[in-house]
Amino acid sequence: MIVLWKSKHPIAAILAAKAEGETNTAIAKRLGLPRPAVNAAIWRAKNPPRPAGIIRTRVMSEEQFWALVDQRGPDECWPWTGALDAKGYGRLKKTMPDGSIMYGAHSSAVFYTTGIRTTKKNDTSVLHSCDQPSCCNPSHLRVGTHHENMLDMKNKGRAGNAWASGKRVRK
Ligand SMILES: [Zn+2]
Predict the structure, then answer these.
(1) Is the domain of 94 the same as that of 149?
(2) In the chain, fewer beta carbons within 10 Å around the N or the C end?
(3) Ligand 1 centre and the CA of 94: distance in Å?
């Protein structure tokens, strides 16, 4: 079942037309809507927000962060128990002291244990040695360059569409 959400666009009409097999372009034209709005409505219906576990706060403390990490044995993976993205990486939203925003749970784990803040800007990202995207065990994480991470993902066959389309993936 699809749950409709509040929108200034006629979501129900868009989805009904799509179910009938009408193309996005045709729907946009017929309903007099911008095409991106039609695309977005259809995408959103297919990708509903996760019902639980969404942690989006700008005031998450270090303590709150670690409370969301299932800290198991020292050699085991420590799964993030908050929100996950489509690829299984732990997500959060935290404003850093420099005003930048941190999104990755695993990057936060590295930040809290080493003080290293990985960003696209300085071309660094956090690599998992265990191949479990949601793992936040600092001993399974290391800092590498973005390029290195991409190669790593490619070698492990995890690159998926992001690699194929040449898009950068925020970590
Ligand atoms: Zn791990």
Answers:
(1) yes
(2) N
(3) 22
